[in-house]
Write a structure and sequence with these properties.
There is one protein chain. The chain is an alpha/beta fold and 362 residues long. It has a nine-stranded mixed beta sheet with strand order 14-13-12-11-7-10-9-8-15. A six-stranded parallel beta sheet has the order 3-2-1-4-5-6, with helices on both faces. Strand 5, helix 5 and strand 6 form a beta-alpha-beta unit. The longest helix has 20 residues. 43% of the residues are buried.
């Protein structure tokens, strides 16, 4: 594929993930992607927003299309493995929503199949391009809290005492459902990307809501030696605390607030490249984090730290660079494997009520 050629893309599913996180970027990044097809079993919702695309009724029809280079899989988690495998066997590059699979053995099989067929396989981890995550990554890289981080706590809390209407698959007692697979995938990926492989994992997974059928709360403790990481999520947090808390030998950073992109996209806005002429991915000033630390010249500072902009478009830029320019993926399929392996270890820890070694990571 030449550097001037656009990647011809098809989308499997047009629920929240396909409609909010994928289709808008395929549409607006038309210098890189040609958005061609969407699989919808019964409706034609995508055509209402993107009248130029083709609606197909089956994944086979999409995967057999010789004019499709890339497929994006946004189905329920239990279908990620089988659909990704079929697409790779049909010679398509694949983006698959997190978690990449619901079993680590399946993830390994997909990695080997992609390598064998010389295709790109990329798990969709958009939260690496959240404003808050990008900001704490910069703080760590600049060593603003010291030469190392000693304690890190990340939350992904919500207040939703009732189940979502419509009996959605994420809240049914089925394989690959529940909050640990859903939001745990994000927090584990962020942590592994920041700090690498932990030594041990200790997890408490619970059902807190009386109406819930499957886990809706988790508490993860990761031990890195000097560094301790805590990852927490619950559906019963009415008064939300800090999203990120970091402590190092020289200081602390505390940040509230969520990335704004999801809310804007859910309201139907189309993404743009962040610039001085627009506010894409720019969070409210009130959500800027507090940096309290000692500088290299011995000054003590306690001030707001400007949040970097969120930009989910960066995911599709790195994907284009990997497919067209043969550059390394920022989010590797091995990262997707490690996330699901950590989820397996987390379930083991919670089930056996003990700390387990983080074995089998790539």
């Amino acid at each position: 594929m030449s550097s001037a050629r656009r990647i011809r893309a098809g989308l499997v599913g047009f629920g929240i993930s396909g409609r909010v996180f994928h289709a808008p970027f395929l549409h607006t990044m038309s210098n890189m992607y040609e958005f061609r097809s969407v699989v919808e079993r019964h409706a034609n919702e995508a055509e209402k927003i993107y009248p130029y695309i083709k609606t197909v009724r089956s994944t086979s029809e999409l995967f057999d299309d010789p004019d499709i280079d890339l497929v994006i899989i946004t189905t329920s988690n239990d279908l990620h493995y089988s659909l990704s495998k079929e697409a790779l066997e049909k010679g398509k590059h694949v983006v698959v929503e997190k978690p990449m699979t619901i079993r680590s053995s399946e993830a390994l099989e997909l990695i080997e199949l992609a390598k064998k067929n010389q295709l790109i396989l990329c798990p969709y981890q958009n939260r690496r391009y959240d404003s808050g995550y990008r900001t704490i990554k910069e703080i760590i890289e600049k060593k603003l809290l010291g030469d190392e981080i000693l304690d890190c706590e990340i939350h992904f809390d919500r207040y939703r005492p009732e189940l979502k209407p419509g009996n959605v698959w994420r809240e049914r007692n089925e394989s690959g459902a529940g909050i640990f697979y859903d939001l745990g995938s994000h927090l584990i990926d962020q942590t592994l990307s920041l700090f690498g492989h932990p030594q041990t994992i200790t997890v408490d997974i619970r059902i807190q809501r009386s109406v819930a059928q499957i886990d809706d709360c988790f508490d993860i403790r990761l031990d890195y030696g000097h560094l301790r990481v805590t990852l927490k999520s619950s559906m019963l947090v009415r008064e939300v605390g800090p999203r990120y808390v970091l402590h190092g030998p020289q200081g602390s950073f505390i940040k509230h607030g969520d990335d704004i992109q999801e809310g804007v996209l859910r309201n139907g806005a189309m993404p743009v490249v962040p610039s001085e002429e627009n506010d894409w991915g720019k969070e409210p000033i009130d959500d800027e984090g507090l940096l309290h630390t000692e500088t290299k010249d011995g000054r003590i500072i306690k001030e707001k730290y400007q949040t970097l902009r969120g930009d989910y478009g960066l995911f599709y830029k790195q994907l284009y660079a990997a497919i067209v320019q043969e550059k390394n993926l920022e989010i590797r399929p091995e990262d997707g494997y490690n996330v699901i392996r950590m989820i397996e270890l987390g379930y083991q820890s919670s089930r056996e009520k003990k700390t387990v070694q983080c074995s089998g990571l790539l």
